[in-house]
Structure formats: C-alpha cells, structure tokens
Amino acid sequence: MASESGELEVPANQKVERLLKTNINEEFARKAESLKPELHQWIDRPLSVIKFEPDPDAFFKCKAVQIHTIEELSKLSYGKGDQLILDFGSHRVGYFSINLGVDGINADAPARLRLTFGEIPYDVTENLHPCNTWISTSWLPDEIINVDWLPTDVDMPRRYSFRYVKIEVIDASPKYKIRLSEVKVRAVSAISSDAASAVSPLESTDQELISIDRISQVTLRNCMQTVFEDGPRRDRRLWIGDLRLQALTNYCTFKDFSLAKRCLYLFAALPRGDDSLPACVFEKPKLSAGSDYIVDYDALYGPMVYDYTVASGDLETAIELWPTILGSMKKPLVHLDADGKFDSKATDSWKFLDWVAGLETDAGMHGLVLFCCKEINKLAALISKPPPFTETVEKMTTAAPLFYDKDLGVFVSGSSRQVSWSSQAWLALSGAMDAPTCLQALTKVMGDPTAVKPLTPYAYHHVAEALARCGGEEQCLKLMRDYWGGMARAGADTFWEFFDAEDSRRSPYGDCHNNSYCHAWSCTPSYLLRVVLKDYLAATSKA
Ligand code: RAM
Asked: What's the 218 CA to ligand 1 centre distance in angstroms?
C-alpha cells in the first residue's frame, strides 16, 4: 500500500464509491434528534505526576513510576524545555483544564506549551510526528497553545480521550517559570455515575472475569456520548458494525434503550439512492452520511433492530424501520450467485469482516448474510410480517457446504481456498451446518498457525461468540482470557481497537499512534459473560 514516495495509500476497497445521492428521511432525522441525550458530567483529577522507565517485560516496554504526588504539583515550577506527565489513573473522556501560575518576577512573555493526551504510554513517551499512516494525522492528540496573560485558568475547548497528559514547556521566559494547579477533566458520557454503579455485579467470583467485565463497561461507557461512538479519540462517530456490538452489551449493562433507538433512526434517516445504508454517520456539523459503504454493515442493520426489539419490547420502532431493513439487504443479496453462494467479486463494494490484510471474504460473508436473513425473519415473526427471506435462507443453507472442505475439516474461502478464523466464525454463527462440525472447524483453525487470524476485537468477538454458540463455552472463555485478558495484562483500562500480543505497534493504518485505545467493538466481554455464557458460568460455578 506504499506509493513510490513511500507514503501509505488508502486501500483500494476503501476508496470512495461513486457517490449516489442520499435520500434524507427528515422525519426519521427529527425522531433521532428528539432522542439526543443530555450528557452527564463530572469532575476528575489526576492522581500523580509520573515518568516512564524502561521495562523489557512490559507490553509497551515501559512502566509508570510516580515522581510526585498531585499535592506536590502546585509547589513545582517548570521552565523552558521542562516537561511533566500527569496520570489520571484510568481512561477519561472530557474537557481538560488547568490553572497556570507564575514563579518569577513577572510573566513578560506568553507561555507556549505542548499538551499531549495519551491513551497509552507510547502517546506520551514517543514523538507522535512524523506519523506514516493513510488516515489523517490530524487525529493525533497533541496541541500547542500560547497563553498570553498569566496567572490564568486555561480551558481546553476540544474533547479529549486519555489517561495521561504530557505538558511540555516550549517556552516561558528567563524571567519566569510556570506553576500548575487546579488540573482537572470535566468528564462526559451519556451514562451517569449512578447508572454505571447500578449495573448488577457479574455472577462470578473469578477475579479475572470480573476485571474483564469491568474494563468492558468502562470502554462502552466512555464511547457512549450523543451517539455510540466507535472510539472517543478516533473516529468519534457512529458505525453500524460497532453499534451492533455496543448495543448488545448496553442491553445487558446500562440498558439505555433510548440512545440505541436514536442511533437506529440516524442510519434510517440516511439511505442512499439504492437503499444502502452508510457504514457510518456524522452528527456534526450537521447530520450526514459517511462516504463509506460496507456490505456487511448494511446487512447487520436488520439484526440490530431485532436485538433492540427483543431487549426493549418496542415493536412500533421495528415496524417503522421495516422498509429500511428490507432496503439494507438489497446490496448484500446482489452478491449471491445462481447457487445461492456469496461471491465477493460480484461488486467491488467493501466487504469488511476484519482489518486483517488479505482476508478472503466469500465464506465469512456467506455466513454473515445468512445469519442476517435469519435474524430478520425472526423480527418479521415478532411484528407479524411474512418472513421475507425464507427462500434465501433455504438456498444459502444448501449452498453453505460448498465452502466446507471435508478433507481439511474446515471452511475455505476464495479461489486460494484460504482458511481463516473469520470464515469459520460467521458460518458457525449462521447455523449453516451442525454445531459439532462448526465447533470442530473452529477448533482446527485455532490450532493451525497458518490460518489467517483476526486482528480486531470485532472479529475476535465473532469467533468467541461462535465457539460458545456451538457448545465450545470452555474454549470461548479461554479465548477471552487470552485475548481480552491479554489486553488487561498489557495494561488496558479500556479495551483497544486492535491487539496483537506479539506486536505492540501493529496497526492497519500504518502507525499505531493512529490506533484508538478505547474502542467500541472491544466492549463485548460483558455481553459474552452476562448473556452468551450466563448459563455455563452459573452451572460451572455450582459444580
Ligand atoms: C475503523 C473504525 C470503526 C470500524 C471501521 C470499519 O475505521 O474505527 O470502528 O467500524 O474501521
């Protein structure tokens, strides 16, 4: 993906499709607007001033060491070339402010500071620039500010997502140094502290699972703003794939049905001319469709409405959104060949499933679309509509074994007969073949070092859920302890957009400084533990 100049280029399948017009549904947009939440706010302060020391055993190769308590801070002064790192103790989303005082004869020049808001140590231990990435470097969380008159309060106007704040004094003057006090963040979320503490405790005494569940909830809560954001640092917007997983986790934790409903209407307000839904939407500066269209995200819209309907009991919304659901399936179903087999090459639209490079998507997309057709049929039954996809389900179920390689005992995808975890996961979730066969296939690929592994927690979630749904609850738990538990052991206080235990710098964007470390699609362990594995955990804790 590198151009001749060495700069990374946008991958071919993510280049903007010829833009078809969006047909705004004003009524749905108004409904979404009326459901916009007032955000809850609260003040948090840093716990200490730290430095990072090398630690070869740590995931990020460094460890935090306290050098001052926060009470000591206001007695310290910092001049040209000095820097400090504040540690808030865990991840926050909100508005940072500080009081800048003067230690010296007078402040005869402005104070020029660089503030860097870090979600992980690399953000504050390394130089963020240059950043070799094909997404925008304007996401990088640093600011240079010039403060004219000191002493003064400084309120940073932008919202940041961070645990650490590095403050570098680029310059003050020979006559004075700065003092820092009143350091705080006005944290924001759609979920109040009361609502967060009202979530029932996980029914388990296993400390590792309790901690994974807690980190999942913090991840979700920090992403729940006026929409379910994918990541409060980047992209700060609503994506269908992320929303589905967030909403499922929300239903078994915070139970904010109104925010979920708002997000369903936001997508329904913005269908394209061909009824396809945008993969993501922007709320600001005004509601508009993102230019990405992802075939799998289109298909997942209906299941999302189904999940919402089951969780909330609100049939009326499902009835109103029914035509949108049917429209959203058009593009995915165009990809079925005469045998009812999903063919990714049928269009050049983006099929996602995961960010891992070179993933063959036919088998996984076959499973995903079949799963979606079944979920939508279930929704039809709930709202007394004829099931729209009975024949499609039959056809796709008959075709599914065409992806199965009897000799290998796994599903294969594409002309290269690629073996990947994602293909097994989605075909298992679709129920296309019997559970023991699917579980065996999953077990096989997970033990095969040549199989294409997932990169994102999004894809790992589908593997984990598929294992549990096919009778592999123990394997699901093990995967959760390895993967999400691995992030926790690596120091995560919110779960990340990507995690590769072997490579702390891995990123599909070219540079890990552009990764997001509080990312919606990684919040699902709470859902897996509280819903999917609920009976299993109850049974095993009694045994
Ligand atoms: C990333 C986003 C988002 C995801 C898309 C496909 O850019 O962070 O979470 O849905 O990829």
From this structure: 19
How far, in Å, CA of 241 to CA of 297, rounded? 6
What single-letter amino acid sits at 425?
A: A
Q: What is the pLDDT of residue 12?
A: 76
Q: Confidence class of residue 253 from pLDDT cuts 50, 70 and 90?
A: very high
Is the separation of the CB atoms in 267 and 327 below 8 Å? no
Residue 239 structure tokens: 């994506």
The one-character DSSP state at 83 is E
Q: Is 360 helix (H, G, I), strand (E, B) or coil?
A: coil
110 close to 147: Cβ distance less than 8 angstroms: yes
| Encoded tokens for 145 | 């500010």
Alpha-carbon dihedral angle through residues 489, 491, 497, 500, given to the nearest 10 degrees: -50
530-535 contact pairs (CB < 8 A, 24+): 530/202, 530/213, 530/252, 530/253, 531/248, 531/252, 532/465, 532/468, 532/469, 532/476, 533/468, 533/473, 533/476, 533/477, 534/203
For 273-297, what is each residue's pLDDT tens digit? 999 999 999 999 999 999 999 999 9
Ligand 1 atom nearest the C-alpha of 239 is: 10
Structure tokens at 231: 């990541």
Distance from the alpha carbon of residue 325 to the mean position of ligand 1, in angstroms = 22
H or E segment at 364?
Answer: helix 362-382
List pLDDT tens digits, range 455-497.
Answer: 999 999 999 999 999 999 999 999 999 999 999 999 999 999 9
Q: DSSP for 182-244?
A: EEEEEEEESS-HHHHHTSPPPS---HHHHHHHHHHHHHHHHHBSSSB-S-TTTT-SEEHHHHH
**CA 375: distance to chain centroid?**
23
Q: How far apart are CA 204 and CA 293, in angstroms?
A: 40
Sheet of 238-239, strand order? 238-239, 280-282, 288-289
Could you tell me which residues come within 8 angstroms of residue 223 by beta carbon, excluding any fewer than 6 positions away?
Answer: 229, 230, 231, 232, 246, 518, 519, 520, 523
pLDDT band for position 7 (cuts 50, 70, 90):
confident
Q: In residues, how long is the chain?
A: 543
Which residue's alpha carbon is at the smallest distance from atom 6 of ligand 1?
Answer: 352
Find out whether 480 and 472 touch, Cβ atoms under 8 Å: no
Cα–ligand 1 centroid distance for 230 (angstroms)? 7
| 213 and 526 Cβ atoms separated by less than 8 Å | yes
